[in-house]
Design goal:
- By secondary structure, the chain is an alpha+beta fold.
- The protein is built from five helices and seven strands.
- A hairpin with a 2-residue loop joins β6 and β7.
- It is globular, with a radius of gyration of 14 Å.
Length: about 130
């Protein structure tokens, strides 16, 4: 598990916002580290954030084997909505398969967008999940 770093104010506010949503929401920092997911996301992931803590986003999502719906092929981080938001600094949306903690494959719609403190200062991403 990574050592917690001081968070940018934008990430703190995003966490507060997400913690008040009934929509499954996850937040990463500019390095691509998972820094929070809300209680609603616990149902999607099958684990609480307090059990998981901060870790590289790719390590976290590897546990869920994100795959393309039509081919069942793994989707690399840079092609997933959160990876696109981090690397290309734009919003992205995709439907995919993932295997939750209970071992069941499910379809999920994922939307991610970058968080900027200033026009050119990326501080992280917000990712929202919908089960389908």
């Amino acid at each position: 598990m990574a050592v917690a770093r001081p968070k940018h104010l934008v990430l703190i506010l995003a966490r507060e916002f997400a913690s008040n949503l009934a929509t499954p929401t996850m937040i990463t920092d500019e390095r691509g580290y998972l820094v929070f997911f809300n209680e609603a996301a616990e149902e999607v992931f099958g684990r609480s954030y307090s059990e998981v803590g901060e870790m590289p986003y790719d390590d976290w999502t590897a546990q869920f084997e994100p795959r393309a719906i039509d081919t069942d092929e793994p989707i690399p981080l840079e092609q997933r909505p959160t990876g696109i938001a981090l690397n290309e600094r734009r919003a992205a949306h995709e439907r995919m398969l993932y295997t939750s903690a209970d071992g069941v494959a499910r379809q999920v719609a994922v939307t991610a967008f970058p968080l900027f403190a200033h026009r050119d200062e990326l501080v992280g991403t917000v990712t929202i999940f919908w089960r389908e």
